[in-house]
Amino acid sequence: MGEPHGVGIVGLGVISRQYLDTLRPSAAVRIAAVADLDVERARAVAAEIPGARALSVAELVADPEVRTVLNLTIPAAHEEIALAAISQGKDVYGEKPLAASMEAAKRIMDAAAQGGVRVGSAPDTVLGTGVQTARAHVDGGAVGMPISATATWVSAGHEAWHPHPDFYYQPGGGPLLDMGPYYLTSLVHLLGPVRSVSGMTSRTRSTRTIGSGARAGVQIPVDVDTHVTGVLEHADGALSTVVMSFDALSTTAAPIEVHGTEGSIIVPDPNNFSGVVRLTTRGSDGWESVPAAAGFEEAGRGVGLLDLIHGPARASGAMGLHVLEIMTALLRSDGARVAVASSVERPSLVPLTSAHSWRSI
Questions:
Q1: Least enclosed by CB within 10 Å: which of 180, 192, 294, 332?
Q2: Is pTM beyond 0.85 here?
């Protein structure tokens, strides 16, 4: 196998714990260094990981033991950290979205191409058994020719539970750029790339009130639209309808449904790696649950980074760029049809892979 792949983590907020839970047990990687604006937090995390060091960001991206930088900063900092790592010849894997704007995302991808390094981008939840099993059935013809899909995510907003939700309501945030990557990346896996979109957006409030933690009761400004609805035209002709909202309480809609000429399939929550896939076909007696047929079993956040290391990456920068263009096009559409210039090949289906197998790749 050789030496484990050295990873440096920048940003040790709420989501970092899920990555640590995946990466620490893996034989494929070694967490060589960590960095955070809160130096004491970085030191505390490093103390939990044998051999890890708490460094500054500049030290981490230049460190010879770090081959890939895992960028878990807020969206506004994604470009800065990614470009710093790329300038030092490091591969980069980042949280979604790839960047806070298309211009920033293109700069990342151009720099990586010029530097001969790789870029990966969350979400990697789509590589779990939920989305991958659904895709296996769609690819196998279970629903016939795909005609349409729906993707729905509705919430009253993250300020109810997140102690520092400010960035969700700043450029790079909002329900579409925050939650949309899970759903739109799933739709690209299921139905292929998107060639055009049309959408409408709204904003119900100018401030939000933090509901938990030391800042409970503090009001924060809302600088992005908080309800988005739109239609995606996939390159093969299927139409997907998307609703993403921070403005409503709940919904009974399935997270994703795909409809074809011979049947329909319900895809579980793409914010999770697994879940029940349900299928109905022409002549059947109704919906039936189908067993896992593809995907990384018992996966957690970070499996996309492991996939990148051993390549070719399914949670790639090219996918992140395409999904970001879909989202930014929806946000500026104002009801008009907007062409999507980028495209991406559908990643290969993930074979059904046990946790033991992917952790020891």
A1: 332
A2: yes
**Domain boundaries, position 43:** 5-121
Calpha distance 18→28 (Å, rounded): 17
Same domain, 234 and 138: yes
- Per residue in 242-292, pLDDT tens? 999 999 999 999 999 999 999 999 999 999 999 999 999 999 999 999 999
Sign of the CA dihedral with 291 first, then 292, 297, and 298 last: negative
- Cis preceding linkage at 255, omega within 30: no
- The answer to whether residues 285 and 230 belong to one domain is yes
Q: Could you give phi then psi for residue 4, rounded to 5 degrees?
A: -60, 150
| φ and ψ of 208, to 5 deg | -130, 155
Residue 220 token pair: 């924060």
- Domain check: are 258 and 139 in the same one? yes
Whether residues 22 and 69 fall in one domain = yes
Q: Which residues contact 141 (CB under 8 A, 6 or more apart)?
A: 262
